[in-house]
Amino acid sequence: MLEQKYLTFIKVAQLGSYTKAAKQLFISQPAVSQQLTSLENELGVKLFTYHNRQLKLTCEGEKLLTYVQSLKVQTDKFVTNLHHPSSLQTSLTIATTMSLANEITPNIIAKIQANNTFTKLNCKIANTKLCLELVQAGKVDFALIEGNFPKEKFSSHIITEEKFIPVCSPLLGLNAEQTYRFSDLLNYPVIYREEGSGSYNIFKTILASRNIAPSDFKFNYQVGSPTAIKALLLKGLGISFIYQTVAKQELATKQLIPLKIENLNITHPIYLVYSKNSYFAKDYLNILGL
């Protein structure tokens, strides 16, 4: 079990406030300060600093938070396993991003079922940012994500790689056989995911590498659902950048067409992500045959 001063450190880091942490921990603010001072003296580093009157973690504090959060998640899971071994060993909770939910995730769930270990599966669907928060908080065993993430804060394993492509409906008047420059597409509407999604981060990186912003397109629509984006695309309402597998059926039936853009060939990894240096990592990899 973690010492109380480490739990206090986690709470202050999460809330960014000694006062709020004290209220949630049902202790006084001086007690919070005393515990953190003791921890800093023990470790010989400064964990927090103030910037523009806001409490911020130092570099050392960030490293410690990653370590102790992972340790707390694993400790809680291990203790629960000791008290309720049968229920934990037959239950699995995972998270997956919306972009992976319809194609990649069913294949992963099929592997879990074939493992014959688990009789209960809880699958949460969210964007990349929320999936990572669920892993960090210990609310899921692991997550399946396609976006970029801070690899120093999590452990991960590449499951597969998927093409990230521009697509549109033939109704928009663009030609799948022609090669376009990005500047050719700025007169068309662009449809993209919400901030916090992996697809949005990749899309933004592609544009930034060409000194382009979504606002440079004639119209830009931000939509928080891959299914809704496909519906808009099918009506010929714009261009979108998505994983090829997301529009697999629509591409096969030519309801949507892939676009060729000069010097654009993006393949991105799909990751299994779990708590940093997790004690249970081998179990997760064995479940999925990795």
From TrEMBL:
Superkingdom to which the source organism belongs: Bacteria
InterPro entries: LysR_HTH_N (IPR000847), LysR_subst-bd (IPR005119), WH-like_DNA-bd_sf (IPR036388), WH_DNA-bd_sf (IPR036390)
An annotated Gene Ontology molecular function: transcription cis-regulatory region binding
Domain HTH lysR-type: 1-58
Nucleotide-binding keyword on record: no
Keywords for this protein: DNA-binding, Transcription, Transcription regulation
Family: Belongs to the LysR transcriptional regulatory family.
Name listed for the protein in its UniProt record: LysR family transcriptional regulator
Species name: Ligilactobacillus agilis
